[in-house]
Amino acid sequence: MHNNKSTQRYSTCCIIKSVLYLSQAALLNRTMKLLVLALTIALLFTAGEALNCHRCVSKKAGGTCELSVETCKPGKDGCAAARFLREPYGQYQKCMALSDCEMLKTNAYINMKCCSDDMCNTF
Q1: Could you tell me if 59 and 78 are in contact, meaning their C-beta atoms sit under 8 angstroms apart?
Q2: Does 74 sit behind a cis peptide bond, omega within 30 degrees of 0 on the bond before it?
Q3: Do residues 92 and 25 touch, judged by C-beta distance below 8 A?
Q4: GO terms for CC (predicted)?
Q5: Is the pTM of this model over 0.85?
Q6: SS (H, E, C) 100-112
């Protein structure tokens, strides 16, 4: 009979440990679900925000243009403003890949401004 009580205590102890373990696992599972949900919502807000740039591209070199707003498409991660320092002395503003914009800065005959904030491409 003494053996039966010992087995019963051991069984109760194991049940309590199992319940505590399952409670911790459930809490961890709930925490992980909340973390995944929060990260997903954060990504939706950041991925949903497209960059807006000034757009002014003349139809002919050196001509005038009407200023408008352009929402940048994927692959165009920056805004650019260019002023040509030789004839026909035109300029443009538009969305552009930042790597392309930085490359154009090396041209001595173009004054380039490259940026990545909304509507930042002005001189």
Answers
A1: no
A2: no
A3: no
A4: side of membrane
A5: no
A6: HHHHHCCCCCEEE
Of 57, 48, 50, the closest CA to residue 117 belongs to 50
What is the share, in percent, of the chain residues with pLDDT greater than 90?
Answer: 52
**Which pLDDT score is estimated for 17?**
76
Q: Tell the residue number behind the tokens 């069984």, with chain if given.
A: 11
Cβ neighbours of residue 13 closer than 8 Å, sequence gap 6 or more: none
Closest to 88 in 3D by CA, of 63, 120, 119:
63
∠ CA 96-113-48, nearest 5°, is 40
- Higher pLDDT, residue 71 or 47: 71
**For residue 105, how many C-alpha atoms fall within 13 Å in the half-sphere facing its CB?**
14
Say if strands 110-115 and 68-71 run parallel, antiparallel, or are unpaired: unpaired
- 41, two tokens: 């919502």
Q: Which amino acid is at 38?
A: A
Q: Are 54 and 119 in contact (CB under 8 A)?
A: yes
pLDDT tens readout for residues 63-83 = 888 999 999 999 999 999 999
Question: Exposed, middle or buried, 13 (CB in 10 Å: 0-12/13-18/19+)?
Answer: exposed
